[in-house]
């Protein structure tokens, strides 16, 4: 990704931490928490891998086709879950959009001149400006909506037993919010 090494490493750390929490969610007793945790873990770790600064490790040209294949498969799975009307269908649709956005970024980064490590990079934005702009608008809306949903609200009086770590809705939403912000950063750096 374009940008400073520090911002790249921070993006790697946030995405890897999010992926690790999603792996924990796979062990949850709550089926709703498990339904999207695997795909989100793939997204988190994949985003972390794509965000590694090029100054640290110049990826081989074939790696971007690998990223596109993995995220394409993730998009197909999410699309199938939306089509099958599995619980959490709205989030599965978001996950399909995110996976397709990752395919788009991988293909753009893999194109000649699409990665900052390539010689003769002009500094111009990569990809299709209209598609990049549409994805930016979508993710700004998603981040704002997720941020609002994360704000505390007055709940019912009384104490309620806290669910296990894998089923904590506020942690899941915080992870989704951080992945949305990471996606914004990656799209802006494209």
Q: End-to-end distance, in Å?
A: 7 Å
Shape label = globular
What is the count of helical runs? 6
The percent of residues in helical segments reads 55-70%
Give the number of domains: 1
Write the layout of secondary structure elements.
Blueprint: H1 5-25, H2 31-51, H3 63-83, H4 89-110, H5 129-150, H6 169-189
Concise summary:
The protein has 190 residues and is mainly alpha-helical. The chain has one domain. Helices cover 67% and strands 0% of the residues.
Question: Can you offer a commentary on this structure?
Answer:
This protein starts with a helix and ends with a helix. It has one domain (5-114, 125-151, 164-189). Helix 1 (5-25) packs antiparallel against helix 2, helix 2 (31-51) packs antiparallel against helix 3 (63-83) and helix 2 runs parallel beside helix 6 (169-189). It has helices spanning 5-25, 31-51, 63-83, 89-110, 129-150, 169-189. The radius of gyration is 17 Å and the shape is globular. The longest helix has 22 residues, at 89-110. The model is unreliable at 116-124 (pLDDT under 50). It has six helices and no strands. With 190 residues, it is mainly α.
Fill in the keyword field for this structure.
globular, single chain, about 190 residues, mainly alpha, about 0% strand
């Amino acid at each position: 990704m374009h940008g400073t090494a520090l911002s790249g490493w921070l993006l790697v750390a946030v995405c890897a931490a999010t992926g690790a929490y999603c792996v924990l969610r796979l062990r949850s007793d709550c089926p709703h928490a498990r339904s999207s945790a695997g795909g989100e873990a793939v997204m988190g770790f994949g985003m972390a891998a794509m965000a590694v600064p090029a100054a640290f490790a110049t990826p081989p040209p074939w790696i971007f086709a690998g990223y596109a294949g993995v995220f394409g498969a993730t998009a197909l799975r999410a699309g199938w879950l939306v089509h099958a009307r599995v619980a959490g269908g709205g989030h599965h649709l978001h996950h399909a959009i995110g996976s397709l956005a990752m395919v788009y970024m991988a293909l753009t980064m893999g194109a000649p001149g699409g990665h900052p490590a390539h010689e003769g990079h002009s500094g111009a934005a990569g990809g299709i400006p209209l598609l990049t702009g549409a994805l930016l608008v979508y993710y700004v809306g998603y981040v704002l909506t997720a941020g609002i949903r994360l704000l505390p609200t007055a709940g019912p009086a009384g104490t309620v037993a806290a669910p296990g770590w894998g089923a904590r809705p506020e942690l899941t939403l915080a992870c989704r919010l951080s992945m949305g912000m990471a996606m914004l950063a990656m799209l802006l750096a494209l």
